[in-house]
Predict the 3D structure of the following.
Amino acid sequence: MTEPRIETEQDAIRPLRDDIRFLGGVLGDTIRDHEGPEVFDLIEQVRTEAFRVRREEVGRSAVARKLEGVDISVALPLIRAFSYFVLLANLAEDIQRDRRRAAHEAAGEPPQDSSLAATYRKLDAAALDGAAVADLLADALVSPVITAHPTETRRRTVFDVQTSITDLMRRRQRYTETERERLAFESQIRRQVLALWRTALIRLQRLRIQDEIAVGLRYYELTLFDVIPAINAEVRAALRSRWPGVELLPRPMLRPGSWIGGDRDGNPYVQAEVVRQAAGQAAGVAFGRYLRELEELEKSLSQSARLVPVSTRVAELAASGYPDPAPHADEPYRRALHAIRIRLSATAARALGAVGAGVSVDALPGAVTGRDTETAPVYATPQSILDDLDAIDASMRAGGDDLLADDRLAALRHAVETFGFHLQGLDMRQNSEVHEQVVAELLAWAGVHPDYASLTEHERVELLSAELRTRRPLLGPHARLSELATKELGIIRAARDVVATLGPEAVPNYIISMCTSVSDILEAGLLLKEGGLLDPGEPDGPPNCTVGIVPLFETIEDLGAGAATLAAALEVPVYRELVTAADMRQEVMLGYSDSNKDGGYLAANWALYRAELDLVEVVRKTGIRLRLFHGRGGTVGRGGGRSYDAILAQPAGAVRGSLRLTEQGEVIAAKYAEPGAAHRNLESLIAGTLESTLLDVEGLGSEAEPSYELMDELAARARAAYARLVHQTPGFVEYFRQSTPVAEVGDLNIGSRPASRKPTSSVSDLRAIPWVMSWSQARVMLPGWYGTGTALEEWIGGDDERLATLSDLYRRWPFFRTVLSNLAQVMAKSDLDIAARYAELVVDETLRDNIFGMIRDEHARTIRMHAAITGNDHLLADNPSLAESIHNRFPYLEPLNQMQVELLRRLRAGDDSELVKRGILLTMNGLATALRNSG
C-alpha cells in the first residue's frame, strides 16, 4: 500500500507560479505581436534584470540603467506592461487563495479563523445564554462604507475583462482533460488579454465625482447584490438554530453604506445635485435589480392552478396582474408576480422622479411602462413589497414547493430586506469649521446674534440649545446668504428630499469632521433643523432627527478628549433628548488617518484604543448604545490591515454587535470585485464582530491596567520620535515634497477631491490620502512604522525582563499582536534601496542625507525590535502567503518605481509634456495595484 504523499510548501505554491508564468507569457506574446520587437525586447531585458536584482545577482542600478533616457513613446508601453503583469498576478493570487481554501476543506481540516464556520464552533464551545446573546445583538449592524479614492480609477471595461480572465482561468483549471479543451481555453484567454492590452488602463480626463459614484455602484452588480443577502440569511439561520427560543437578528446584520456624493469635507464638487444623483442612482440600481429578478421569476414560476393550491392572498394579487389574463389564466404565481412588477415599476418611477437624479424608470431592466403603471398604486415602503413576496413564499411552501421558494424568490426577498429602495446608506460629512461659519451667518441674518464667533463655548451651547427647541426657522424665503451658506443648506435640503422619498435609511448619518466641542455637535443639529431633517417637536414633546449626528474625533488630542466631549454633549438636555428619541443610540467616528499623520503609527493606534476605552466608560455611566465607526484607510498608515484581526483587537465592550468601517481605494477592488473574495471579506467582518461581542477576546484580565500604562509610555515615546522627524526637523516638508510624488498627486487627474484641505504646504493641512500614498509610492511606507522602533528600544533599555514582558503581551493581547503584525506587513512592502533613489530627487544634499539617514536608522531599529519581541526571523514569518505575494511581484514593482523616478526627474527638469505626466500617472496606478493597499 502506497503511503499518501504529503504536500510540501513548494507543491502548494506551484499552481500559483504556473498561473503567473502562463499569464505573463500570454501578455508577453501579446506585447511582442502588437508593439513590436524593440519594445518587447526592452521589457524582457528589464524584467530579466529585475529578477536578477531579486536574486541579488546584480545591484539596483541595473534596472535604472536600462530605463535611463528611454524615449517616452517606449516608456509608456513598458509601464503599461508591468502594470498589467501586476494586475494578472493579483488575479492569479486570488485564484490560488480559493484553491488553497478548497484544498483545506477537502482535507477535512478545521475551519480557519475569520470564517463563519470557525466562529460558530467558538460560540458553540462557549455555551452562551440565549437571552444574553439577544441583548448583545439587539442593535446588530456591520456596515462597510465605500469611499472614493484617487488610486481606484480603473475603468469598468478593465474590470469586465479581469472578470472574464478570472472565470476562464478557473474553468481552465477544472476542465482541461483534453488537449483540445486546453487550447480552447488558452485561445479565449489570449483574446481577453489582447482586449486588456488594447484598452486604456485609466481615463485621461480628471475623474469627476459622478465617475466616482458610478465606480462605487459597480460593485453591487459585480458581487454585493448576491453576496450580502446570502450572508445575512446564513448568519440569521445559524444563530437562530443555536438559540431557537430567541428571535435573533430581526433586521439583516450586514448593511452597506457610502460616502461618495455625500462627503463634502474639502471637496467643493459635492453640491445638492450630486447628493440627488448619488442617492437616485443607487436607488435606480436597486429598483433595476428587483425588476429584473421579478421578470425572471415570472418566467420560471409557471405552476398551474390545476396542479397546485394557492392562497387567497396570492389569488388576489394574481387578479391585478396582466390586463389580459387569458394566456396565463391558470398560472397564478406568474400573474401575481406581474402585478408586483407593475406596482414596483410605478414606485420606481415616482421615487426616481421625486429624488430628481435624472434616472428614468424606462431605462431599468424589467420595468413595466405605459398606462398600467400610471394608475397602479405604489409601494409606500420596502416592507410593503416584502409582504407581497412573503405571501407568495408562504403559498408556495404550503403547496409543497419549498425547493422553488428557496431559490430565486428567497434571494429576492433577502435582497429587498437588506437593500430596501435606497440600496446603501449615504452619509453626509462636513468640517466643523464650515458649520461654524454657516451657523454664524444664519444667526446674524435672523437677528439672533451678530457675532457668534465671539461667544464662549458655554454661551454657544446655551444659544444653540435654545434654537434647537424652537420651531421658528432662522430663514425666510427671501433670505440673502453667501455662496457657502446657500450651498450647505441646499445639500441638507436635498438630503431631506431623499429621506422623504426613499426612507430614513437612505441618509442615516451626518458626520462632523474635526469635532472638538459640544458646540460642534449642536451646530450640526441646527443646520439639520434648518434643512428640515431635525424636528424640534411639539412644545411639550421631545425633538426628533432621522439622521444620526456623528462626531468624528481625528487628531491625537481630539481622540483623548472625545469621551469627555460626548459626555458633555449628553448632559445638554436637548441633545440627550435627541439621543433618547433614537433609542439611546449614539454613533462616534474615530479617525485613523489624521491621528496617524498627527502623531505617528504607534501613538495613533494607542490613542484610538484609549479613546474606545473611555467611550465604553461613557456608555456605562450614561446608558447609551454606542456604535463605533472606524475611519480606516487601505494602508496600515491609515488604519488598514486584516479587518478580522482589527475587530478582535478592540477593547472589551467597544463592539457590542455593531460597527461601521470605511473601505477605500484599490482595497475595494481587491475585496469586492470578485464573488469569492467579497464573501470571504464580508464574512470575516461578521465573524470578528460576533466573536468580539460574544466572547472574551482581549485576554488581559487583571493585568489590563498595567498593560495600558505600559502602552501609554510606549505611545508617548513613539510620538516624540515621530515628532522629531516630521514636526521638528527643519526642511522636512521640503524633503517630503521633493522625495515623493506628492506634488504630482495634487497636479495630476487622480480624483475629484483636492490633495489639501487648504492651499498650503503644511503637513497638517495635507489630506491623509496623498500623505500616505506618496510615502507608499516611494516605498518608504513611513506612516506605517516610524517612531515605533525608538519607543520599543528606549522602553526595553537592554532589560531582558522588559523584553519578555513585551513578548508575553505579543502572545496574549490581540491589540499588541495586531499592531506589530500590521507594522511587519507594511515594512515588508517598504524598500529603502528604492527609497534612496527617490531621495536623490532632493536638491539639497545635506537635507537629503540628514532626513534619509534618520529614516534608514529608524527602519533598521524597528525591524530589530520586531524580531526581538516576536521571535520571528523575518517580518512575515507569521504570514507566508503575503511573503510569497511580495516575492512574486518584486520584479514588477522594481521597474515601475525606477520608471517613476526617471519621469519625476524629467518633469521637474522642465519636461512637462502630457506624455510624461501620463507616464507618471500610469506608474502611480501600477504601483497602487501592485501594493494592493497604498493609500
The CA atoms of residues 18 and 92 lie 9 Å apart. The longest helix spans residues 72-106.
